[in-house]
Amino acid sequence: MSSKIYPSEIQAKDGEEQTKKIVRTWTVWKKSSMSFVGSDGFSVYDGEGKLAFRVDNYSRRNKYLLGELLLMDAIGRPLLSLRPQIMSMYDQWKGYRGSDGSNSKTNLKSHLFTMRRRSFVRNNDDIVEVIMSAGGGGGCAAIAADFTIEGNFKKRSCKIRARGGQVLALMTPKQVSPSMVLGKDVFSLFIEEDVCAELIMAFIVIMDRIC
């Protein structure tokens, strides 16, 4: 894989003002790490260019046939399972810890968040809401807040905000030089240091399906 998709020294910005908090830089490649013909997914690299997260899906099927998606770590251990709610007009999804999403006996205990469009009307600048489960427990759910995601996902320009409005993460086109921006399959993700990266990445995976 070309080193050009590795994170560059771009500073995250919110409008014209640089982010003052410490941020971690990730590079998201919209490609399955399995590299099979016809496969689809995500490969996520940290600031040192090491594989951190992956999503491997073997066909880009309609959500009614898709079933569960798994966000995994670099060696394939399941972190979060993501399931579409088939009859939802708002493109609603639910996230579960590990691979428990398909186990009805553990769904209530492991349910971490619900994510959906704010409106059933589709447009290029949708606002998506995330409601954290009250029984989610520790770990990523330690961020005791709901989230909103705003911007234009297709243009790789989105902000993820906490309930109070502060920007926790930014998604931007991947810039490798002042005059060169990569295509939409590779983009940058900036996440504040104390924010759970796997949770933010789960939101990005769902946004890709919603949009």
Mean pLDDT: 77
- Portion in helices: 10-25%
Output the CATH topology: Porin
Main sheet characteristics: 12 strands, antiparallel, barrel
CATH class division: Mainly Beta
- The tally of structural domains comes to 1
Strand proportion, as a percent range, falls in 35-45%
Contiguous runs where pLDDT drops below 50 for at least 5 residues: 1-13, 15-19, 104-108
CA-based shape: globular
Give me the CATH superfamily.
LURP1-related
Please give the radius of gyration in angstroms: 16 Å
Number of strands: 16
Our count of helices gives 3
Order of strands side by side in the largest beta sheet?
3-4-5-6-7-8-9-10-11-12-13-16
SSE ordering: EEEEEHEEEHEEEEEEEEH
Distance between the termini: 27 Å
Q: Class by helix and strand content?
A: mainly beta
Give a structural overview.
It is a single chain. The protein has helices at residues 63-66, 107-110, 197-210, and strands at 13-14, 17-18, 23-29, 40-45, 51-57, 69-73, 78-84, 93-97, 111-117, 128-132, 147-152, 157-162, 167-173, 175-177, 180-181, 186-192. With 211 residues, it is mainly beta. It has one domain (19-210): Beta Barrel (Porin), CATH 2.40.160. The radius of gyration is 16 Å and the shape is globular.
From the structure above, extract its key features.
211 residues; mainly beta; Porin; twelve-stranded antiparallel β-barrel; two-stranded antiparallel ribbon; 3 helices; 10% helix; globular; disordered N terminus
